[in-house]
Amino acid sequence: MSFQSGLASWFSTTGPQTSKVPEIGSKAPSSQKLELPPPEGTPTIISFLRHCGCPFAEKAFLELRTTASLHPDLSFVAISHSSATATAHWQSSLPLMPNESPDPPNLRVIVDEDRELFARWGLGIASFWHVLSPGGLYSLYRLGTEEGIRNRPTESGSRWQTSGNFAVDGNGIVRWGGPVQRADQVPDFEDVVRLLEGKEKAAKL
Description:
This protein is an alpha/beta fold. It has helices spanning 3-11, 55-70, 84-93, 116-120, 128-132, 134-147, 189-196, and strands spanning 44-48, 75-80, 107-111, 164-168, 174-179.
């Protein structure tokens, strides 16, 4: 990572025009990049990540990966808006699965550098307080001291891009999700699985 690329992530404050966030019960946006429902018709949990290098993106991805490994009957998608090269470098730097197992086959990573998918799902540019709230900064400190998850090199992407999470059933209907309200928010994906299975009525974003 160069100093310039890390600095540029702070100044990337524009993005494509966004659509409305899909409403619960509505048809999920589907495209060539992200076909919903997938051809196999499985329910899908989607996590739109912050930039590669962000501790909260790492936390979300690791939680999603763990959940995917426990639920092979569901599909999981992580969407990165960093470049393909930066995303690959970042993934290779992350902790391995237990017993050094490979990532679960039902977890897919999509690179969306132009943020087309982010825009389709209503995820635009965040406010100053969304990114740099005192509560979020304290969460950043705790993530480092309690879980060892700290900032990694940022090769591309915008620190101002809003992240979000969604769950789509096997018929392509949005059952849960939306943009995060603060940069440090990471959902409990197990709760989302239970919601898709009809075992929970609600799950926190």
